[in-house]
Design goal:
The protein is mainly alpha-helical. The chain has nine helices and no strands. It has two domains: 1-48, Homeodomain-like (Arc Repressor Mutant, subunit A, Orthogonal Bundle), CATH 1.10.10; 58-202. The protein has helices at residues 3-26, 29-36, 40-44, 50-77, 88-105, 107-116, 125-146, 156-175, 180-202. The N and C termini lie far apart (58 Å). Residues 5-65 form the HTH tetR-type domain. This is TetR/AcrR family transcriptional regulator. Keywords: DNA-binding.
Length: 205
């Protein structure tokens, strides 16, 4: 490790501690620099502002999960030509377990995103996931409906509300600092509950 990378790592570590304790808005750039033992000039050699430091701490895992989530949406469409749409709930639960493990592999970053990101572009992270889910799932349901594979309907408003409740509940694992084992059990119970509701409304053939 070079002196340069050691300096940057120290800034990141102290920045993470400050953001976790005070949130992005409450965190003090001056306090971060002072605790790190550097001048503000040294800090600016790595990051132009506090927002850039926050993004450096969360962007890779947060953006990575978003891309994995988009790929999971596409995987559901791939079930249709194989006439396996009935397996969509099982596939969703499989992906959910993968996602929760990814979140716990990067727990501090997601703690920052879910609990400390007000004032950054990540403050709407759960909402952004919900929007992707609702938009892609409605296209998926319409495709199934055209094929006669779906009997029930759900309004977009209700769809959005249910999905928002579901995603918020999933990320409660992070907000409440659940252990990985507890979180996996919790999200699987949550998936069972919501899947039963969707099946009752949509009646997938």
């Amino acid at each position: 490790m070079t002196e340069c990378s050691a300096t940057q790592n120290k800034i990141l570590e102290i920045g993470k501690k400050e953001f976790l304790a005070k949130g992005f808005r409450g965190a003090s750039l001056r306090g971060i620099v002072k605790e790190a033992g550097f001048t503000q000039g040294a800090f600016y050699g790595y990051y132009p502002d506090k927002a850039a430091l926050f993004e450096a701490l969360v962007s890779e895992p947060a953006d990575g999960l978003m891309e994995q989530f988009k790929a999971a949406q596409q995987a559901h469409f791939e079930l249709i030509p194989e006439d396996k749409a009935a397996q969509s709930r099982e596939l969703s639960t499989d992906y959910l377990n993968h996602f929760i493990n990814f979140i716990y592999d990067n727990f501090d970053a997601f703690k920052l995103v879910i609990c400390c990101s007000e004032g950054t572009k990540y403050s709407s992270y759960i909402h952004d996931l919900v929007e992707i889910e609702v938009t892609q799932t409605e296209l998926y349901y319409e495709r199934l409906r055209q094929l006669g594979k779906l009997e029930g309907t759900v309004s977009r408003e209700l769809h959005h509300m249910i999905t928002s409740a579901y995603f918020t509940a999933v990320f409660e694992t992070v907000a409440h600092d659940m252990t990985r084992e507890h979180a996996i059990q919790y999200v699987n119970e949550l998936a069972t509950f919501f899947n039963c509701g969707w099946e009752g409304m949509l009646r997938l053939k």
